């Protein structure tokens, strides 16, 4: 592990100080190169278009004709992902980094995305009425009962909500021009699948389904500009878990030395090696925390524009013209529902991922009649919605 870590740091330091490569000979529309921190940007007279309200207003062909995308993008219109082991301090650091770079902080999603509906009702309250195969299962359940029937389904759902969250981040960048800093991303999710499979928490069949889903979806989204990996040894991770005192983490049957070492191995030996072919990478020893200002200075030194059109690194962010940027923006705003449909891979050969017909019928009856679930948001009279007879718009996909 240490050898990989040292190589990563040296490689990054050398690359950030090297001369830029020759410019592309084939014209292409790319973003400005170097990210700048809030302090530097405060001294510049930066004038940007008003952020497009992509959450409430569609962005389709007619909107794209009058609201082009490239004019919104500058050197800080980047996707930055903070990665690292459990309890490394990723969330606190990512928030500080986003603030220092004047970017949006996008928290890591949780299973609340699935289990708490738009009216705030927690659907986990329905568990006593549901068959075993349909009961809720989240990170707390996994920590306390990793061999549970729904463990594999839980990890696949985590991939889906990470994907949704990441698409939201891409939509934000292209619609507002503001960069995004997020905690973990769908590209690194597989490390948990590998660790689960190795320790018997996920079957070979479920693992196969997971990678079928990845093959069908990951090529539809843009890889990050930059990965910041906070390196913390397993002994310190366990100390941090105990220190932050989350009961189910402290009592977890999962967070053994073997499991945490395997997560670290899959992170360093596979994910970081693979992602650095496409994204910039900074690695820091975060055993005792660190200074966000130092990371900001390192980021400011990276020239994101030093690769030519033949280099796979940052290729996702090199498009041929402004209209291609508009089409990309439409994909992550108007067409989010279509992107999520790519997860509908017909695999019914894995028992732990399928539900018997009778159980499914019970689940649908109970779930669909839960408070706030009978109709689309805005059309549930029992939840206080009014003026239903006069509404003629369908809520947008979220």
Automatic annotation (TrEMBL):
**Which Gene Ontology CC terms are recorded?**
mitochondrial matrix
> What cofactors are annotated for this protein?
FAD
- Where does it primarily localize? mitochondrion
List where in the cell it is found.
Answer: Mitochondrion matrix
User: Which family does the record claim for this protein?
Assistant: Belongs to the complex I NDUFA10 subunit family.
The UniProt keyword set, sorted, is:
Electron transport, FAD, Flavoprotein, Mitochondrion, Respiratory chain, Transit peptide, Transport
Q: What is this protein called?
A: NADH dehydrogenase [ubiquinone] 1 alpha subcomplex subunit 10, mitochondrial
- Every Deoxynucleoside kinase domain range: 80-314
One GO biological process term is: mitochondrial electron transport, NADH to ubiquinone
Outline what the protein does: Accessory subunit of the mitochondrial membrane respiratory chain NADH dehydrogenase (Complex I), that is believed not to be involved in catalysis. Complex I functions in the transfer of electrons from NADH to the respiratory chain. The immediate electron acceptor for the enzyme is believed to be ubiquinone.
């Amino acid at each position: 592990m240490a050898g990989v870590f040292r190589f990563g740091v040296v490689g990054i330091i050398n690359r950030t100080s090297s001369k830029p490569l020759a410019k592309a000979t084939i014209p292409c529309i790319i973003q400005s190169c170097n990210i700048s921190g809030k302090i530097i940007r405060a001294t510049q007279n930066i004038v940007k278009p008003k952020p497009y309200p992509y959450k409430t207003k569609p962005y389709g062909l007619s909107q794209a004709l009058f609201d082009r995308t490239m004019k919104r993008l500058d050197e800080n219109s980047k996707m930055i992902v903070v990665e690292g082991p459990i309890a490394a301090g990723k969330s606190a650091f990512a928030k500080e980094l986003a603030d220092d770079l004047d970017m949006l902080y996008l928290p890591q999603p949780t299973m609340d995305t699935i289990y708490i509906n738009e009216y705030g009702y927690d659907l986990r309250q329905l568990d006593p009425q549901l068959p075993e195969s349909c009961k809720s299962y989240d990170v707390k359940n996994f920590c306390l009962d990793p061999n549970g029937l729904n463990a594999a389904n839980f990890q696949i759902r985590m991939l889906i909500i990470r994907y949704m969250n990441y698409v939201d981040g891409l939509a934000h960048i292209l619609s507002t021009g503001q960069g995004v800093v997020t905690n973990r991303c769908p590209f690194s999710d597989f490390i948990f699948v590998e660790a689960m499979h190795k320790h018997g928490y996920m079957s070979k069949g479920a693992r196969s389904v997971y990678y079928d889903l990845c093959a069908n979806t990951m090529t539809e989204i843009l890889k990050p500009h930059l990965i910041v990996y906070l390196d913390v040894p397993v002994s310190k991770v366990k100390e941090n878990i105990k220190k932050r005192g989350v009961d189910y983490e402290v009592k977890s049957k999962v967070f053994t030395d073997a499991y945490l070492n395997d997560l670290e191995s899959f992170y360093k030996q596979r994910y970081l090696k693979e992602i650095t072919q496409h994204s910039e990478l900074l690695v820091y020893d975060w055993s005792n925390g660190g200074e966000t200002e130092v990371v900001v200075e390192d980021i400011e030194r990276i020239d994101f524009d030093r690769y030519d059109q033949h280099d796979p690194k940052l290729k996702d962010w090199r498009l041929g013209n402004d209209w291609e940027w508009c089409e990309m923006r439409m994909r992550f705003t108007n067409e989010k529902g279509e992107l999520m449909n790519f997860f509908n891979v017909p695999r019914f050969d894995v028992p732990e991922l399928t539900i018997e017909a009778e159980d499914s019928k019970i689940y649908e009856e109970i779930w669909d009649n839960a408070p706030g679930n009978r109709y689309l948001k805005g059309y549930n009279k029992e939840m206080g919605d009014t003026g239903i007879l006069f509404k003629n718009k369908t809520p947008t996909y979220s």
